[in-house]
Amino acid sequence: MKSYGVALVLILCMTFTMELVSSDGIIIPEPIPEVPHVPPLAIKYHHVNVEVDNQYTKTEVDQMFLNEFHRDLEGTYIFPLPEGASISKFSMYVDDEELVGELLEKDEAREIYESIVRRLKDPALLEYVDRNMFKARVYPIPAKKGNVPGEKRVKLSYEEIITCDSGVCRYIYPLETERFSSKPLESVLITVKLESRQPIKAIYSPTHEISVKRIDEHNAEVSYEVSDVLPEKDFELYYTISDEDFGVNLLTYKESGEDGFFMLMVAPTYDQQEVIAKDIVFVIDTSGSMAGEKIEQAKNALRFCVNNLNTGDSFNIITFESNIGTFSDEMVSADSGHVGDALDFVDGMGSMGGTNINEALLTALDMMDEDGEPNIIVFLTDGRPTVGVTEVSKILDNVGDANKKDTRLFVFGVGYDVNTHLLDQVSGQNKGLSEYVKPEEDIEVKVSSFYTKIQSPVLSDLKIEFRNVDVEDIYPKELSDLFRGSQLVLFGRYSGSGDALITLSGRVGVKEKKFTYEGTFPGQDSGNDFIPRLWATRKIGFLLDEIRLHGEEKELVDEIIRLSLRYGIMTPYTSFLVEVDTEYGQPVRMEETRNLLYDILGGVSFKATTGADAVHSAEQMQDLKGSEVYESGSESVKSVGAKVFYLKDGVWVDNEYSPEMDTENVAYGSESYFQMVRDYPQVGRYLSLGKEVKLCIGGKCFDIGEEGSTTSTIVIPTTASTSTSTLSGGEKPSILSQTVIIVASVVIISAGVLLWSRMGERSGG
Prior knowledge:
Layout: H1 2-16, E1 26-29, E2 42-53, E3 56-67, E4 73-81, E5 89-94, E6 97-98, E7 102-104, H2 106-120, E8 132-141, E9 150-161, E10 163-165, E11 168-173, E12 187-195, E13 200-204, E14 211-216, E15 219-226, E16 235-241, E17 246-253, E18 260-268, E19 279-285, H3 293-307, E20 314-320, E21 324-326, E22 332-333, H4 336-347, H5 357-367, E23 375-381, H6 392-402, E24 408-414, H7 420-428, E25 434-437, H8 443-454, E26 457-467, E27 470-475, E28 482-483, E29 488-495, E30 498-508, E31 511-521, H9 531-550, H10 554-567, E32 582-583, E33 586-587, H11 590-601, H12 604-607, H13 612-625, E34 637-640, E35 643-648, E36 651-654, E37 662-667, H14 671-679, H15 684-687, E38 693-697, E39 700-705, H16 735-764
Parallel strand pairs: 2-12, 19-20, 19-23, 23-24, 24-25, 36-38, 37-39
Antiparallel strand pairs: 1-4, 2-3, 3-9, 4-8, 5-6, 5-9, 7-8, 10-11, 11-16, 12-15, 13-16, 14-15, 17-18, 18-29, 20-21, 20-22, 26-28, 26-30, 27-29, 30-31, 32-33, 34-35, 35-36, 38-39
């Protein structure tokens, strides 16, 4: 009984400390009496190394601070810990000497945050008022000598347990504090080494463009690197773990009373043994315009592809100019003999003549077998159709009629003299995609990189079905095949709630296979607030592309305007919406706004079919349609959680604000202002935008500015919900106090059970 009670206590304690996240540090210079303004420190670099071993995580941080002032400075180093954080080990070094600091609970930390906000007259730190803090004194911070700033290096490390829920693990490293730097950082580098006993499936960041290197199914390395930047959003990393052949994991976001949003990640086991043999035809433009460096790069790319065919693959090579040339009259196996002959064929390729795109594609489609294996065409051209059938609509019809064997068509447009409308529709209507190789880019690098991704298919003809929940508006519209090392990320809407069955089906070779998973679509879920904006970004990309390729329609234009304003998504074509007068997130003068967008979308640069503008427009559409990273906004638009704020005449205005709403004025920096933050610390993330903010919660708005309440008590509707948690007055119990309560309760229960057991023994005796 005793050992059982101790074990139960330990299990509860471990479970309670699972909600762990991390943060980076900043140095706030101390004031100097005779100096009216001490300049803020700059940060030269910020490097983070993370090792995750089955959720046990060690984070090492290395920062270099720069003093641009002519005097030595003293500063306070603060390291904000997000709510729920629990650090098992924390060490800090300044110039390789261990520095003594202290961990502060929320009450003490909040006083420091508030005092800094008051002194600096900068509300940015309000975002952290609900967090514990590590604090240390840093002195001296060397003065600037000549033109060389003084440097102070800070290194620290800590250990934590990251959360995994239903096979989805999440690591967060907040970078937002780096906006306190007086100038952009020269270097930001985050590396994460993942190790898991269960196979790692999808690896995904909704916040940053990451590079992923998969070592095997249990190990992977993730990196993010950028220079000359002021980071403005936290680094978030999700990875999924599963023993299944295909990992299918669900994340949701839903506000009460509204339809929800979901993200579905699908990824095969990295070391998937059953790789499907494929039939692949390489169709290469050898017209006169390809002469010189372009044809040599194309030949090198083709050599790479041929050398990396899998055993069991069948392949062929077609060259086209005015006439059509073939390596073989039919598909051949990828054995050493045929591969060697194919490489000789590539060596002999030259360039001359016109561009017969129609006949080249029809010849390739005619070679495909109907044997159940994936059929793939890789098509590369640097020009528009000039020989044979040249009308775009006719070529599209011919290709559609000829593609009877469900062939995927992947297109590379080289240079600016290509018809992007033709290439995008050829690929889009045939389950492929288009990529463009600009004049300054290397054909060999781009084609080789792409081929590596599609080299080993593991599941083709994907279909995903949902039972017991209604889903709609899913992007991408067409599901791509899954290849070894790849992943599929879908965004969509759902209505209703409850447990659902998710069925993934497809073909492995000639075999039809189905995989069934369970998922929960909640009636309310305020986590994962990045999902709505990514869903909206993809939908806007889809709608813009429809207009680019097929012409304007009023309903499409209105929906683009609505989504752009509602979610703060400013594309190169909708950025003018920042200046539009809005009410409840909608234009006051809708017709005028619509006409402006008509003019932009009817312009030459957006609708161009050929030239640099056409290629740039096509690439922008692809980026929007396939977006996996949400943009935090611009100088005039900020996304904070699920809310969007627009900068209007120096005031950050909540997208939900309307002058007719019940509004209470609160003076910035007053006792009422700080009481509001103390009682409802979740609003700190919104107030950190600036000194003037119009914020709406639960049907009530608060106008923060120079005038307003200074001593009255501010009350926020308790039924209101922020993007992360329900607002309620007062302080939540700290991790320590909650843990003490739980441990005490378990001890009391265990003692009661033990006493009851002994009384039973006595009565039985």
